[in-house]
Amino acid sequence: MSTGVLGSYTRSIAVALVIGLGLVFAFSDARIDTWFALLPIFEWMETTPFGVIGQTWGAAFAVVEAIHLLAMAVLGGSVLVSDGRLLSLVFTDVPLRQVQDACHRPFVWSLLLIILTGVFMACGVAIKIYYLDVFWYKMLALSVGVAFVFFVRRPLLRHDIEHLNPQVLRLVAVASLMIWFSVAATGRWIGYSG
Amino acid sequence: MNQLIYNFAVWLDTHTWSTQLHESFYMYNWVESTHVLALMVSLGMLFLIDLRMLGLALPGIPATTIAHRLNRPMFIGFSVMILTGLLLFYAIPVRSSQSLWFRIKVVLLVAAAVNAWLFHRRMKHASSNAAGNWDRAIKAPRRLQMGAALSLCFWVLIVICGRLIAYDWFDCRSEPSAIIATLAGCVADQTQF
Amino acid sequence: MKETTTSANTDARTSKDAQIAAVLASTVVALGFVVYWAIQIQAVREMLALAYG
């Protein structure tokens, strides 16, 4: 197995770079400029079929939101079980790799459904959420969550579990729970804002 | 019956705590948020169990192991949902008791509870059966699959009904048709909504 | 034999890399979580003080 482009610590360096760039972006004018640049897209979203349906038929919006919640339930369940296993709270007699692999498929499918229904709902209330800080925090949490799962957690768990530091696994599990709780809670907050 | 329910709801509405909860700055929102977020625990566990029985998730892990291990967090989640649900009802008792969607939701909750009880009974019977080697099979026996599928249907409808409670299309205040008025429990000459 | 040792060393290095990346990412996530929710809770407390005195 060859090492990466940046040597033996490719992933660590890449994560550090992404974090650094993210912080620079967050505290610079680029963030505001990007926000302004996104306005035409959000205005367009309300004119799409999704947007028109969402604004016209409250029942359609409500049903899609309910499906969004149900998908969240499945995602929440798979996150709780997989992170619970990392924390040695559940299924301690089942091999860790088996629990992680088993939880990954429902996680991915529910995530896809969440994103699909989320886009539908966003189109219905695009301008309202564009001006809501909590919406952008939710998008940040969601992006961090997806990146964390596919670029940090999964690659970590591909290695031989016996050679991984248990404290690292626990830290990853706690961070994962924090991210997905934040996604859910900020999502709920959107409903109370605006 | 509708008059009885209406009288009880009006009585609840006279409570100071009911009004305070309804009119609170944040408390009602927090109770509602907890009710919704607890979904991820209770329904999350339930859906994993049901999907396992249908062979759609968590393959390779024994089905009864999943059912038994996830039972406790599931019941903790449901306890939180029942408590917060009761508080939400207590905050706005008249409107809630006369909401068609709320009534359908309660009927579905009862049906889901009966289905769950039957499911667990069948699972116990299937486990004690000499031919009970289904635990490691991809799918559970047919009757358990049916119970799991019914459970999924019930809970999908329960969540949809719960979401639709916020809409006032069939509220008594909007003078619905006679059938809807009866089903929703509207009372003639009612002064409180 | 030599190839097995080399492969094992590479696995150990990539495993260490994955763990460092995980610790880095998880720490930043945890810090961000604490800071964000502390600010939100403080804002709620201020609103409650304004509303109820």
Summarize the structure.
Chain A has 194 residues and is mainly alpha-helical.
Any overview of this molecule?
The complex is a heterotrimer of chains A (194), B (193) and C (53). Chain A is mostly helical and 194 residues long. Chain A has 2 domains: 1-45, no CATH class; 48-192, no CATH class. In chain A, 81% of the residues lie in helices and 0% in strands. Chain A has 8 helices and no strands. In chain A, helix 3 (49-56) packs across helix 5. The radius of gyration of chain A is 19 Å and the shape is globular. Chain A starts with 9 loop residues before the first helix and ends with a helix. The mean pLDDT of chain A is 92. The longest helix of chain B is centred in the middle third of the chain and has 29 residues, at 63-91. Chain B is elongated and about 60 Å long. By secondary structure, chain B is mostly helical. In chain B, helix 2 crosses helix 4, helix 3 (27-53) runs antiparallel to helix 7 and helix 6 packs antiparallel against helix 7. Helix content of chain C is 96%, strand content 0%. Chain C is built from 1 helix and no strands. Chain C has one helix at 2-52. Chain C is rod-shaped and about 75 Å long. The chains are: A mainly alpha (194), B mainly alpha (193), C mainly alpha (53). Chains in contact: A-B, A-C, B-C. At the A-B interface, helix 4, helix 5 and helix 8 of A face helix 3, helix 4 and helix 7 of B.
Attribute tags:
heterotrimer; A: 194 residues; mainly alpha; 81% helix; B: 193 residues; 73% helix; 0% strand; elongated
How many strands appear in the DSSP assignment of chain B? 0
Q: Report the structural category of chain B.
A: mainly alpha
Quaternary structure: heterotrimer
User: What count of helical segments of chain B does DSSP give?
Assistant: 8
- Shape estimate of chain B: elongated
List the helices and strands of chain C in order: H
Give the arrangement of secondary structure elements.
The complex is a heterotrimer of chains A (194), B (193) and C (53).
Chain A: H1 10-26, H2 29-45, H3 49-56, H4 58-86, H5 96-124, H6 126-130, H7 133-157, H8 166-192
Helix pairs in contact in A: 3-5, 4-5, 4-8, 7-8
Chain B: H1 2-13, H2 16-23, H3 27-53, H4 63-91, H5 93-97, H6 100-128, H7 142-164, H8 178-184
Helix pairs in contact in B: 2-4, 3-4, 3-7, 6-7
Chain C: H1 2-52
